[in-house]
Amino acid sequence: MTRVLLLGPAREAAGVAQDEFDGDTVGEILHSAVDRYGADFERVLAVSQIWVNGNPAELTDLVGPYDEIAVLPPISGG
User: Fold this and answer.
1) What is the pLDDT of residues 14-63, one digit of tens each?
2) Residues 43, 70: contact at Cβ < 8 Å?
3) Mean pLDDT over the full length of the chain
């Protein structure tokens, strides 16, 4: 299973800081996350950056059981 790290608003929308999913690509994993967490998470995901193992990722990138996907929503502050 691939670990998914949820930060800031993504964590709030999902209700968890991390989770694990089965899938072969970043897109499959994130689709499963949307199914699990619902519309609020999907809205946050739409404006988030996705990184795999500390590097920017595309939905078609392959992932495996030792990879970590991070969902990085935009953060506002001042």
Assistant:
1) 999 999 999 999 999 999 999 999 999 999 999 999 999 999 999 999 99
2) no
3) 95
Residue owning tokens 């946050």: 44
Distance CA 30, CA 77 (A): 26
- Give the type of residue at 48: S
Best CA proximity match to 51, nearest among 36, 73, 20: 73
Give the amino acid at 23: G
54: helix, coil or strand?
coil
- Give the residue-averaged pLDDT of 67-73: 97
Please, what are the domains in the chain?
Answer: 2-72 (3.10.20.30)
